[in-house]
Amino acid sequence: MPASRQIQVCLYGTILEIAQEASVRARGKKSLFFCQSRSLSESVAERMRGRGAEVFVHHSSVSRDERREAEARFHHGTDAAIVCTSTLELGIDVGDLDLVFQANAPSTVSSFMQRMGRTGRRAGQVANTTFLCESPEDVLQAVAIVELARKGWVESVPVQDRCWPVLVHQILAQTLQFGAISAQRCFEQLARVPDFHGITPAERTHLIEHLTKEEYLFESGGLLSMGTKAERIFGRKNFSELYAVFSSPVLYRMETETGRDLGSLDQAFADRLVEEMSSFLLGGRAWTVVRLDNKERTVVVREAPRGQKPSWGGFLPQLLGFEICQEVRQIIVDTVEYPYLDKASFAAIESWRADLGDLLRRNHPFAAQQDDRAVRLWTFAGGRINHTLKYAIELIGGWQAVADNFALRIEGDGVSHATVEAALGKMREAGFWENAETRTAIRARVPPFRLSKFQSALPPEAETEFVARSFLDFERSARTVGNWRRQ
Length: 487
Prior knowledge:
Elements: E1 6-11, H1 15-26, E2 30-34, H2 38-48, E3 54-58, H3 64-76, E4 80-84, E5 99-103, H4 109-116, E6 128-133, H5 136-150, H6 164-178, H7 183-190, H8 201-213, E7 217-220, E8 223-226, H9 228-234, H10 236-239, E9 251-256, E10 261-266, H11 267-270, E11 279-282, E12 285-293, E13 298-303, H12 322-333, H13 343-362, E14 367-370, E15 374-378, H14 383-397, E16 400-403, E17 407-411, H15 417-427, H16 436-444, H17 460-471, H18 474-486
Parallel strand pairs: 1-6, 2-4, 2-5, 3-4, 5-6, 9-13
Antiparallel strand pairs: 7-8, 9-10, 11-12, 12-13, 14-15, 15-17, 16-17
Helix pairs in contact: 1-2, 5-12, 5-13, 12-13, 14-15, 14-16, 14-18
């Protein structure tokens, strides 16, 4: 990373403090403030309003007209801030920028680089990012991402060759295109697509049989056409739901009493609203519910003095990669003083080092702590590996485990350093991770996250595999546990 780029990592502790600091720094400038969720962006924007710069909100639940108005006014303004999610990470031109803020830290180096790259485009200016963090963990994550970027490392794009939901989408799309099509011709059309190369002919045949049985397809005379269930699910608005692979939740349209479109709310949140009582935030402003129309899925609102933070349905928790978490570990065991930290962030790093530094240096490459109830393994292996280990440990020992990106906490009868190490030893045995029954049992423990509109059409084993692929990593888990033995 060029030295001319300006980075700061600051720790403030609360959203109010973060918003206040951003307001001061943004005054008289044009800035983007990136947040990791729509709810957080609404909270930040509400607290920034009235403190100097004009504040706009930009995320996928704000209406298109509202987003375009924000882009246009921001583009021509000189004292404005857009609080946004990844919707403004790239692609949309909002003119020259002075500052980029980041609430807490993104989950990837590539996101950080994209966001910082929105600044420094004018002659004589430098790219910059200021991280405004809520917790010591966020500070660690921010520093790890910056240091990996400084080393020139960025995530690679993984190759996928068993994209089950996309295959279902393509099969249904071909029945819509041709009216009726044979399975052979259908797969001939898809043969050159690398995303399906890992799915065997037998698995493709089983998928067609399953889709036909579940009435997503109708078979007659050797030709496949759209089934009644697929028509019911995807046929609304001339099959518009079939034109896109990505999934979207059931949304309620939000509008003012004059009919102005403001954006959308998840059904789960809309279900909790009460007419003339509930107030909430959208677009960084507070609104009171005037009327709910469940048949038309519409929420009519008027402006209010205060409102609660809205919620939108999420999918997977934030799963940090192995390399970022290993960099976090290195930060803790090092004594490096990073020049871009404020005093509070520096103190947070030093606190982590005081608590874990000696333990990690003595117990390379992972450390275990035991109390009366549990053993904690500090792996710094990342979310997908740690969750894979969690389910494997539960399967082997019959214990309960809680995993995050940095560690696992294991509880249950007989849990000790020795019994946990014995469980890890079993994972190192030849064939453990390749065993089909073991993989099936581990996959079955993953919560049924809704990741695609097409996953409900999949055979159970394919759906389980699809969800697990986004949450687990058998190959890297095997390598990680194996490396622990050799070191």
